[in-house]
Design brief:
Structural class: alpha/beta
Helix content: 25-40%
Number of helices: 9
Order of helices and strands: EHEEEEHEHEHEHHHEHEH
Shape: globular
Number of strands: 10
Distance between the termini: 12 Å
């Protein structure tokens, strides 16, 4: 893998104030991948004491640039009680550490010696008040484990048995992306013999698709490939306007009191949008979206994919005629495309 293998310095943050997910994909073609621009180094001729170069302006702590700069730590993956045994895999309750918080989840481990490639799953919005451990993508958890992948499904902070982060919602739920990035790090640092930590991917659905967008932006090189189903918009203000503002969600006022409206502070909203930093992405991305998705508009995925393509990234959009947000008749076909994609890129 690339430079982030085994490193702790990765940022995280997804600006998703949404409460719901999209599923879909649209037919597209892969484009050549480009690496993020190489950083420049100041010359050593001028002594530091006489330098007139101004210090960089600190990034807003609630922003993707700040999360990119932040040092993140995922560790302490622990397998707890067996939740389920099947003919193909065993499911365990798990916890891991994410920047000081304990995060719960589940992990499906295929039968056999391995080592197996691994996938970290990022679920869509489910009200934390009713959410239970591992809830979110049961079909994907089962199928991918049967196909020979270790599947780690994170609950996120403030969900199930995870620790609470009282500032998470007003800070645009950036912590969810931290938890996904740190899940990868925890999986890798656990050094489990049945996990091939050189072959790890991400899969997100709906809101989790937006989490994956941010993870790719904040931590290029962390994984080998990513897939999203029916993702939310890569512009968080569009998510707010579609899912929260029409419902009169009081959280909208709290967010705008803290950070300003898109009209009052457009730069803040630009800095929390993953599409602003798409040039940083280094991993191949597959986007699925149904043409009948009335939760997350297909236009959102088309716009995001267009931004990836304009930046020369390796992206493919697969659209599924007649499929809605959660996919139905063609779900299995879409998963066959997904596993073929991971087989190509995870090896």
């Amino acid at each position: 893998m690339r430079f982030l293998r085994g490193a702790a310095h990765v940022g995280a943050g997804l600006v998703l104030t949404v409460a719901v997910g999209c599923t879909g994909g649209g037919g597209g073609t892969e484009t050549s991948r480009t690496d993020p621009p190489a950083s420049t180094r100041a010359g050593g001729a001028t002594p530091a004491a006489t330098s007139t170069t101004p210090a960089p302006t600190p990034a807003d702590p609630v922003s993707l640039p700040a999360l990119i700069q932040r040092e993140h730590h995922g560790s302490g993956l622990r397998l707890g009680a067996v939740r389920l045994r099947t003919d193909a895999y065993t499911q365990y309750a798990v916890t891991y550490r994410s920047n000081g918080l304990t995060i719960s989840g589940i992990m499906n481990v295929p039968r056999g010696e391995g080592p197996f490639p691994a996938l970290v799953l990022a679920h869509g919005y489910i009200d934390p008040d009713v959410y239970t451990t591992g809830r979110g993508m049961p079909r994907e958890q089962d199928l991918l484990a049967r196909d020979g992948y270790v599947v780690l499904h994170t609950d996120y902070r403030n969900h199930a048995g995870s620790d609470d982060d009282p500032d998470n919602d007003v800070n645009l739920r950036l912590g969810y992306t931290e938890d996904v990035i740190n899940a990868v790090q925890a999986l890798r640092s656990a050094d489990r013999p049945n996990v091939d930590d050189e072959r790890i991917g991400l899969l997100g659905r709906s809101m989790g698709g937006g989490v994956v967008y941010n993870a790719l932006v904040v931590a290029p090189g962390l994984v080998d490939a990513a897939v999203v189903f029916a993702p939310v918009s890569s512009r968080p203000e569009e998510n707010v306007d579609r899912f929260q503002r029409p419902e009169g969600d009081p959280l909208v006022d709290e967010i705008e009191d803290a950070h300003g409206t898109p009209e009052e502070d457009p730069e803040f909203w630009r800095q929390v949008s993953p599409v602003t930093f798409v040039d940083r992405v280094t991993e191949p991305l597959l986007v699925h979206h149904g043409t009948a998705d009335d939760t997350c508009p297909l236009a959102w995925s088309k716009a995001t994919v267009a931004a990836f393509e304009a930046a020369g990234k390796d992206v493919e959009l697969r659209t599924w005629a007649g499929e809605g947000h959660t996919f139905g008749p063609r779900w299995r076909e879409s998963m066959d495309v997904t596993t073929a994609f991971f087989e190509r890129h995870l090896g």
